[in-house]
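REVIEWER CHECKLIST
Item 1: Sequence provided? yes
Item 2: Single chain? yes
Item 3: Sequence as submitted:
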Amino acid sequence: MAAGRDADTWEWLRHAACTGVDPELFFPVGDSGPAVEQAERAKKVCHGCPVESQCLEWALATGRTSGVWGGTDEEERRRLRRRADRRGAPDGPPTRPGGSTVPGRRRRP
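Item 4: Structure as written out by the authors:
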């Protein structure tokens, strides 16, 4: 990885809970049965991660369309993007489907 600004961009990844986990866990094949269970196991890793919100921000900013990132699956990120598109520029923290705020993010006063 290049030094400088790019290195700073990836600094959060050094603290990610997924770094010691098989990456295959985060890329289930399909959207039913075992794939759903696998995605839920991956999300459990994310939900215990100190950089979950940074990961989700990165996934949304870079258009990640596959896998589990920041505790969300592909469909959840599509919904977040659609919601942000309808609102225009986001004025608050990303939220998970169902309305719960992503950990580590505060709402603006």
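Item 5: Key structural point noted by reviewer: The two ends are 37 Å apart (CA to CA).
Item 6: Recommendation: ____
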